[in-house]
Design goal:
- About 45% of the residues lie in helices and about 15% in strands.
- By secondary structure, the protein is α+β, with helices and mostly antiparallel strands.
- Among the domains are: about 15-180, no CATH class; about 185-335, no CATH class.
- The strands form four sheets. Strands 2, 6, 7, 8, 9 and 10 form a six-stranded antiparallel beta sheet that branches. A two-stranded antiparallel ribbon has the order 1-3. Strands 4-5 form a two-stranded antiparallel ribbon.
- The two termini are about 35 Å apart.
- It binds adenosine monophosphate and magnesium ion.
- Magnesium ion binds near residues 253, 254 and 263.
Length: about 475
């Protein structure tokens, strides 16, 4: 077979170092593997020749077939609190780590398959994923990346040629995922529960080496690791809140140590601002509602802190006070990131007293008037062009504040338009694109992907991409397992 360009060279530093956290396993053979979509911009960013993605070699690497260059794959172990209850053994039930590779910038990545067959962690599951949800993860990840929000991304989606039994038989698919790593809070929970302090320490040192290398030589590095993860998660969730993103399944196994968004299941973007918004069909109690995301993140980080106690101090009792102090900072750190983000979106490059109220009052107004978050924020620049944007007295306060910026109107408009996106994956458009894609027509999916990967660039005849639709009352999203 003619090889178009070499695939990345894979390593298994994690599985070598921590064999109790990674089980060697094989992907299922796929009866008729086909490439559905590949991500050329991501491939280029990673130093992978996009043409290689369409090769037979890539297709066999992305499925269980042949895999000549990379016989070793691993299912990763983790535990996790799911909707508040602890499961001691979750792990990659339908996923495998193909390996780690280094991009031309020297950054290390994991390449991972989701939907590659049952593993020892599959419990009752069939090990499969279906096309709709995998394309959904692809689309959402690309939209988030384009909005500048840390996220895992998909390099490709392939169909396997096999069916997966759901409410009805659906085409089986595999998502080829790239992540800064697959270290999760749940990974630490699993390692901590094994009770081998040396392994826990090795895991923490590995995480530090990979994501926080500046801490590697620090004597206080485990407490500082906690602080650093708190910082990144606070920043991440602030970014989510600023664009109205609802993850939907903020279980501790879906919280990364790297600070990337991971595991796009029933996630969705909110239209009308309402803290109680829940889309996921399985989130009956609203535990993961839009407005609860910051406090849930803090709760998840407390579970992370618990795993680190024996590393933070020889007597874990002595670690409780500093760990608690670190966790208690979460709301302040979150609030700082959120307000910084709001200031940017309001065209403010400086901070003065009263800015926090200006931002809070705007959000309260959107909520009260049941306005769409993204299009209303984008319309702020229209106000500077002399249009009435319907926000009444609030705009007068904002005008007064803008005068302190001593910036020209053009400068302010360009700041606003660089900070407020036009296009996000609107729920009704996502549903429409996915149902046609599953029926074999990718044109709507491609068009939507094109818009949401250029979220700030207005194009002609695309107004419907910028507006909330009416997905109907009680719009629900499903995990799609
Ligand atoms: P998720 O909701 O995708 O984050 O998955 C939660 C847990 O369930 C993880 O341990 C997954 O590996 C496992 N899981 C989800 N769907 C399946 C499936 N179809 N087969 C096997 N395991 C699954
Ligand atoms: Mg998960």
């Amino acid at each position: 077979m003619a090889s178009i360009a070499a695939p990345p060279e894979f390593q298994h530093t994690y599985a070598r170092l921590l064999p109790t956290l990674a089980t060697s396993w094989k992907a299922d053979e796929s009866s008729d593997p086909r490439l559905i979509i590949s991500n050329n911009p991501l491939a280029e960013h990673l130093g992978i020749n996009p043409a290689w993605l369409t090769s037979d070699e890539a297709l066999s690497l992305f499925t269980g077939n042949q895999a000549a260059n990379n016989p070793e794959r691993y299912a990763l172990a983790y535990a996790g609190h799911q909707f508040g209850s602890y499961s001691p053994r979750l792990g990659d039930g339908r996923a495998l780590l193909v390996g780690e590779f280094i991009d031309p910038q020297g950054q290390q990545w994991d390449l991972h398959l989701k939907g590659s067959g049952r593993t020892p962690f599959a419990r009752g599951g069939d090990g499969k994923a279906t096309l709709g949800p995998m394309l959904r993860e692809y689309l959402m990840g690309e939209a988030m990346a384009a909005l500048g929000i840390p996220t895992t991304r998909a390099l490709a989606v392939v169909t396997t040629g096999d069916l997966a039994m759901r409410e009805r038989p659906l085409p089986g698919a595999i998502l080829v995922r790239v992540a800064a790593s697959h270290l999760r809070v749940g990974t630490f929970q699993y390692a901590a529960a094994l009770g081998e302090i040396d392994d826990l320490k090795t895991l923490a040192d590995y995480a530090i080496e990979r994501h926080y290398p500046e801490l590697a030589e620090d004597n206080d590095r485990y407490l500082k690791l906690l602080n650093a993860v708190i910082e990144r998660q606070a920043s991440l969730v602030a970014e989510w809140m600023l664009v109205g993103f609802i993850h939907g399944v903020m279980n501790t196994d879906n919280v990364t140590i790297s600070g990337e968004t991971i595991d796009y299941g029933p996630c969705a973007f909110m239209d009308v601002v309402d803290p109680q918004t829940v889309f996921s069909s399985i989130d009956e109690g609203g535990r993961y509602a839009y407005g609860r995301q910051p406090s849930i993140a803090q709760w998840n980080l407390a579970r992370f802190a618990e795993t680190l106690l024996p590393l933070i101090a020889t007597d874990p009792e002595d670690a409780i006070a500093p760990a608690t102090e670190a966790l208690e900072e979460f709301p302040n750190i979150f609030s700082r990131y959120w307000h910084d983000g709001m200031n940017q979106r309001l065209g403010l490059s400086t901070t003065v007293d009263g800015d926090d109220d200006l931002a809070n009052d705007l959000i309260a107004l959107l909520q009260e008037q049941r306005l769409d978050l993204i299009s209303t924020m984008r319309s702020l620049s229209d106000h500077l062009r002399g249009h009435d944007i319907g926000l009444g007295e609030w705009t007068t306060r904002w005008d007064t504040r803008l005068q302190l910026e001593k910036a020209s109107c053009e400068e302010l408009i360009s700041r606003l338009e660089a900070a407020n996106p036009i296009y996000i994956p609107r729920n009704h458009l996502v549903e429409e694109a996915l149902s046609s894609a599953v029926a074999g027509d990718l044109s709507k999916f491609d068009a939507l992907l094109e818009r949401v990967t250029h979220p700030y660039e207005r194009v002609d005849n695309a107004e419907h991409y910028a507006q909330p639709g009416d997905p109907g009352p009680g719009y629900r999203t499903y995990c799609g397992t």
